Amino acid sequence: MALTHDPTCILVTGGAGFIGSNFLLRMVPRYPETHFVNLDRLTYAGNLMNLRSIEKSANYTFVRADVTDSELLATLFARHKFTSVVHFAAESHVDRSITAPLAFVRSNTLGTVTLLEAARAAWSDVAHAAHARRFLHVSTDEVYGSLGADSFFTEHSPYDPRSPYSASKASADHFARAYAHTYGLPVCISNCSNNYGPYQFPEKLIPLVIARACSQEPIPIYGQGDNVRDWLHVADHCDALDLILRNGQPGDTYLVGGSSECTNLSLVRIILDLVDEGLGHPSGHSHRLITLVTDRPGHDFRYAIDASHLRQALGWRPRYSLTEGMRQTVAWYLDNMDWLQSVTDRSYRDYFQAQYGQL
Ligand code: NAD
Ligand code: TYD
Fold it and tell me: Which of 33, 51, 196, 316 is most buried, by the most CB atoms less than 10 A from its CB?
C-alpha cells in the first residue's frame, strides 16, 4: 500500500495515560528515525512509570503541560516542527464525568480546539500539501450513543452522545471535522470501542476486577451486569492508529473495534476464572465477590462496531481474540502487581471510597 504520510516529528498528547503509553511503547522503538514528543499534564491517570523502558530513547521527549496552554503549544510547534499530531489527551472515565462534567469540557473540548488552533497556525503554509501533515484525533464509539440488542455503529451512524464524557468527545469530533472542512486541516478521526490491556487505570472495569480479585474485595457490577461492550486489545488499537496516521485519507473517519462483544457479567466471570487460575485458587473461588450495585445513571446498554471500512481501506485486522487478549492481560497485571499497587496507593483508593462507599 502506498504510504500517504511519513511523519518525522510527532506530537503525542496524553502519552502517559493508558492508550497513549501503549502507543509510545510500541512506536518509539518501531520508528527510530521519527521523534516523539509526549505532552501530558499528568493528571491522576497519567503515569510516567509506564514509559520507563523508552524514557531514555534518543527519539523521545517528555513535556509536562496542559493541552489548553496555547502559548506553550505555539512554542512547541515552532521548536519541533511537528509533522503529525496524535491526540489522546482527555478525561476518559464516564463515572467521573457524571460527578464533575466541567473538567471534561475543559480538557476534551477546549483542549482539542486549542490543539487544532495550534496546528492550524503552525501548518498554514502547507495547507494544500495535505500529505505533509496529519492530525489524528483519537475518539470513542460512545459518541454514537447506545445500541439495542442488534445493529452496529458505522462511520455513518448519527451522533447521539448520552454522558458528559461522550458529549465532550462528540463536541471535540465536530470541531476536528469542522477544521478539516473549513481550513483544510489534514484531520483523521478514529472512533474506537472499549480497550483493555496493560497500564489501564483501575477505575475501569477490567483492571478494577483484577485488582479487587487479588485483594479478595467485593466487585461492583452496575445494574444486572447485562450491558454489552465490544472489547479490543490496546495493542490492536495502537496498530490501527499507526495505519490511519500513515495511510488514512485526510478528512476520513475510521471506526475501530474487535468484534468481541460480551456482557459485563460474562466478562467479569472470565477474568475471575483467570485470576483464580493465576493465583492457584480453586475454580470459581472469586465468583462470590461479584456484587450487583445501583446502575450508572444513563448507562448505555450496548456498543458494537462494524470496522469494515478500516479493514477494507487500510487492511487492518486485530491480532488478539478476546480469549487470548484477556489471558495475556490478566497475566500482565499479576506479573506487575507493583505497578497496580503503586497506582492503587497513589489515587485509586480515595476514588473508590467516594464512588462506592463501604461496598
Ligand atoms: P487515560 O485517562 O488513561 O489517559 C489520559 C491521559 O491524558 C493521561 O495521561 C492524562 O494525564 C492526560 N490528560 C488529561 N487531561 C489533559 C490535559 N488537559 N492536558 C494534557 N494531558 C491531559 O485515557 P485513555 O484510556 O488512555 O484514553 C486516551 C484517549 O483515547 C482518550 O481521548 C479517550 O477518549 C480515547 N478512547 C479511549 C478508549 C478506552 O477504552 N480507554 C476507547 C476509545 C477511545
Ligand atoms: P468502563 O470500563 O467504565 O467503560 P465505559 O463505561 O466507557 O464503557 O465500564 C465498562 C462497563 O462496565 C460499563 O458497562 C460499566 C460497567 N462497570 C461496572 O459494572 N462496574 C464498575 O465498577 C465499572 C467501573 C464499570
Answer: 196
Ligand 1 mean position to 90 CA, how many Å? Answer: 4
End-to-end CA distance of the chain: 53
Yes or no: say if 231 and 193 are a contact pair by the CB < 8 Å rule.
yes
Q: Which ligand is nearest to the CA of 219?
A: 2
Per residue in 256-309, pLDDT (tens digit) is 999 999 999 999 999 999 999 999 999 999 999 999 999 999 999 999 999 999
Identify the nearest ligand to the CA of 66 by its number: 1
Does the annotation mark 356 as catalytic? no
Ligand 2, atom 20: nearest CA belongs to which residue? 221
CA atoms lying within 13 Å on the CB side of residue 177: 15
The active-site residue, picked from 142, 239, 242, 300, is: 142
Among residues 40, 91, 141, 239, the one annotated as catalytic is 141
Label the pairing between strands 290-293 and 261-263.
unpaired
Encode pLDDT of 193-243 as tens digits: 999 999 999 999 999 999 999 999 999 999 999 999 999 999 999 999 999
Between β-strands 261-263 and 228-230, what pairing exists: parallel, antiparallel or unpaired?
antiparallel
Q: Which domains does the chain have, with CATH numbers?
A: 9-200+233-259+299-320 (3.40.50.720)
Cβ atoms of residues 203 and 167 within 8 Å: no
Q: List the one residue out of 31, 35, 39 whose CA is nearest residue 80.
A: 35
DSSP string, 178-230: HHHHHH---EEEEEE--EESTT--TTSHHHHHHHHHHTT--EEEETTS--EEE
Measured in Å, residue 127 CA sits from the centre of ligand 2 at 41
CA of 282 to the centre of ligand 2 (A): 27
Q: Whose CA is nearest to atom 13 of ligand 1?
A: 89
How many C-beta atoms surround the C-beta of residue 162 within 10 A? 17
Tell me phi and psi for residue 96, to 5 degrees: -65, -35
Distances (CA, A) of 160 to 60, 180, 223, 302: 38, 21, 22, 13
Give the ligand 2 atom nearest the CA of 93.
3
Report which bound ligand comes closest to the CA of 140: 1
